[in-house]
Design a protein that fits this description.
Number of helices: 1
Order of helices and strands: HEEEEEEEEEEEEEEEEEEEEEEEEEEEE
Structural class: mainly beta
Helix content: under 10%
Shape: globular
Length: about 350
C-alpha cells in the first residue's frame, strides 16, 4: 500500500506533478541585560543563516526534537541534529520538517525550501518547535512542564531547549512564499543568587504562596483575535490547565562564581508568561552537604521590572540575604517525589 502524507488532500502520487516551492525563514533570539541586576530583556533579531530543509516522513521521532540555548547576556536558541519543526495550516493537520544538520552542527536560524508541497494563497500557517507527532491541531499545541528542570553547571542556559516552546506569528501565504519569525513563547527566569559559602549547590526551588506557575496547558497558534502589541495576554495565548506554587531546578554540578562582590549561583528556569508584579518570591538553595538556605524578595510592580515575566524575554531576579533554614521546602508535586529528574525525560509539548 502506498504510504501517503497529506497537505490539503495532496498525496505523494500527486506531489510528483507539483513543483511549487514555499519558504519559511525562522530565527530566534532572547536578550538579557549584560549586568546581573534585576532586569527585563526584550527580544531582538539576528542575521539570517540559510539552511535547506526537506520534507520528511511522519515517522520523525519527536523524542529527539530538542534544540539548545547558548549565551548568557544574550540567550539564542540554536537548532541542532535531530531537531524538527511542525507546520500547521489553519483547520488542517501538521507536516513535520526535519532540519538536516550534522552531528555537532548548530544554526540559530533556518530557511525552509520545500519542493513538492503546495500551499494555498491567503491560507494561514503557523510553525512551532519542538515537533510533536501527537499534536493534531494548531489550536491545541500542548506544553508540558510537569518535571524537574535541570542545569549542568553554574550560570548556563544550554539545557533550556528541553523545556521551551518556539513558535511563529501566524502568517498568510502569497504566491507560495511566506516568511515568519520564530519566537520563544515562554519567559526565561535567571535567578542570580548571592550564596553564603563556596560549597557546591545541588538544587534550587522558587516558590510563592499561591499556585501561579503553569505546569501544563496548550497554545492556540491561530487565535489572532487580540493585538500583537498585547503580548502575551491576547495574541496566540497559552491556556494553562494545571498550576504549581513552586518550580524546581536541579544542578548536575554547580560551583559558585567567586568575585569581589561575593559568591554567586545563577540558575535558568523556563516558564510560560506570568504576571508576577508585586508578588513575593522565595528562593531555596541546597548545597552538597544537605544544608538549605532561603531568601525572599518582593518583585517590582512596574511593567518593565523583574515582576513582568513576559513571553520572549529573559528576566533576571537578583537574590541576596540567604540564611540557613531548618524548615526547607518540602511541598513537592507528584512528579518530583522519589523520581529521577530530566536526564531521561521527553521534550516538552507532550
Amino acid at each position: 500500500m502506498e504510504k501517503k502524507q497529506h497537505l490539503h488532500g495532496i498525496t505523494n502520487a500527486m506531489i510528483k506533478k507539483i513543483y511549487y516551492v514555499f519558504f519559511i525563514i525562522c530565527n530566534v533570539v532572547i536578550l538579557s541585560s549584560c549586568n546581573k541586576e534585576d532586569t527585563l530583556g526584550d527580544s531582538s533579531k539576528v542575521s539570517y543563516l540559510y539552511v535547506n530543509l526537506l520534507p520528511s516522513s511522519n515517522d520523525i521521532d519527536s523524542t529527539l526534537t530538542r534544540s539548545i540555548a547558548r549565551g548568557v547576556s544574550t540567550i539564542t536558541p540554536y537548532y541542532g541534529h535531530g531537531d524538527s519543526l511542525g507546520i500547521f495550516s489553519e483547520g488542517g493537520s501538521q507536516i513535520p520538517f526535519e532540519i538536516p544538520l550534522a552531528e555537532g552542527q548548530y544554526q540559530s536560524s533556518v530557511s525552509i525550501s520545500a519542493e513538492g508541497w503546495r500551499t494555498k494563497d491567503g491560507e494561514l500557517y503557523a510553525v512551532y518547535h519542538p515537533y510533536n507527532f501527537y499534536d493534531h491541531a494548531g489550536n491545541r499545541v500542548y506544553w508540558d512542564l510537569r518535571r524537574i528542570q535541570e542545569q549542568p553547571i553554574n550560570d548556563t542556559p544550554i539545557d533550556l531547549g528541553k523545556y521551551w516552546m518556539l513558535a511563529s506569528d501566524t502568517c498568510s501565504n502569497t504566491n507560495n512564499i511566506f516568511h515568519t519569525t520564530m519566537n520563544m513563547y515562554n519567559c526565561v527566569i535567571n535567578m542570580y543568587c548571592s550564596v553564603p559559602n563556596t560549597n557546591k549547590y545541588t538544587k534550587m526551588v522558587i516558590a510563592t504562596d499561591d499556585k501561579v506557575f503553569p505546569t501544563y496547558g496548550y497554545f492556540d497558534l491561530f487565535d489572532i483575535s487580540g493585538s500583537k502589541t498585547a503580548l502575551p495576554t491576547t495574541y496566540q495565548p497559552f491556556h494553562a490547565l494545571e498550576y504549581s506554587n513552586h518550580v524546581t531546578l536541579k544542578f548536575i554540578t554547580c560551583s559558585p562564581t567567586i568575585s569581589k562582590s561575593g559568591n554567586w549561583v545563577s540558575g535558568y528556569i523556563c516558564l510560560p508568561d506570568i504576571d508576577m508584579k508585586g508578588r513575593t518570591l522565595t528562593c531555596y538553595l541546597w548545597d552538597i552537604s544537605g544544608n538549605c538556605y532561603v531568601a525572599s524578595k518582593t518583585l517590582a510592580t512596574t511593567s518593565n521590572g523583574n515582576g513582568a515575566w513576559k513571553r520572549n524575554t529573559t528576566v533576571t531576579v537578583s537574590m541576596k540575604g540567604f540564611t540557613l533554614t531548618t524548615t526547607p521546602y518540602t511541598n513537592l508535586n507528584p512528579w518530583e517525589e522519589d523520581k529521577d529528574t530530566c536526564s531521561t525525560c521527553y521534550p516538552v509539548a507532550f
